[in-house]
Design goal:
This protein is α/β, with parallel strands linked by helices and 197 residues long. The chain is 36% helix and 21% strand. Helix 4 links the parallel strand 4 and strand 5. The radius of gyration is 16 Å and the shape is globular. The chain starts with a strand and ends in a 6-residue tail after the last helix. Bound molecules: 5-O-phosphono-beta-D-ribofuranosylamine. The site of 5-O-phosphono-beta-D-ribofuranosylamine has 15 residues, from helix 1, strand 5 and helix 6.
């Protein structure tokens, strides 16, 4: 039997963080096997990348709400994740708030990456919030997911300085480069038992 952690990845967007996790699994630096990639957006980049990496990819209907899953959708996500054998769930740009039954089903096993140094700038377009505010450093945070919005225990942070000519877009790019190092590294430490929650 494999001693690798079974990991599912949920995302709604282009999937660059998924790619960094998949590469780290492939080169052995992340002791995990990605058993499912699921998205609430049909044809999302993350699903295409999952297929490129030969990982099971599924679009799962999110239901009628814009920012959360309805009860049926939540049950469908939980069922798919259980069926995949996932032990941990990594959110990588999943644009819906997970609550209730989902978090109970994977209690203390859901992590997220957020593009700011939490608790500063929770919520949407955190890089733009930071840029507009005029901070001189920002970055990204890997944290546990709880019932709040970007409020769970912080596992790791990466710092990105804001430079003179940064636009929100160039700042976002550099934050993402940092994310691609921080996320696999942090999950590796977590799965190796090097982080206490
Ligand atoms: C990342 O910037 C992450 O911090 C945020 O959503 C974005 C996802 O980007 N939660 P990608 O789809 O992984 O490229």
């Amino acid at each position: 039997m494999s001693d690798k952690t079974k990991l599912a990845v949920l995302g709604s967007g282009k999937g660059s963080n998924f790619v960094s996790l998949a590469k780290a699994c492939a080169d052995g630096s992340l002791p995990a096997e990605i058993v499912l990639v699921a998205s609430d957006i049909e044809g999302a980049g993350i699903l295409e990348h999952a297929t490129e990496f030969n990982r099971p990819a599924r679009f799962i209907e999110p239901g009628p709400f814009r920012t959360k899953l309805d009860r049926n959708a939540e049950a469908a996500y939980v069922a798919a994740l259980r069926e995949s054998g996932a032990e941990w769930v990594a959110l990588a740009g999943f644009m819906r708030i997970l609550k209730g039954d989902f978090l109970r089903a994977f209690e203390k096993k859901v992590v997220n990456i957020h593009p700011s140094l939490l608790p500063a700038f929770p919520g949407l377009e955190a890089w733009k919030q930071a840029h507009d505010y005029g901070v001189k450093v920002t970055g990204c945070t890997v944290h546990m997911v709880d019932h709040g919005i970007d409020t769970g225990s912080i596992l790791a942070q990466g710092v990105v300085p804001v430079i003179e000519d940064d636009t929100a877009a160039t700042l976002h790019q550099r934050i993402q480069q940092e994310e691609h190092k921080l996320y696999p590294r942090t999950l590796a430490r977590l799965f190796n038992g090097e982080i206490r929650i």
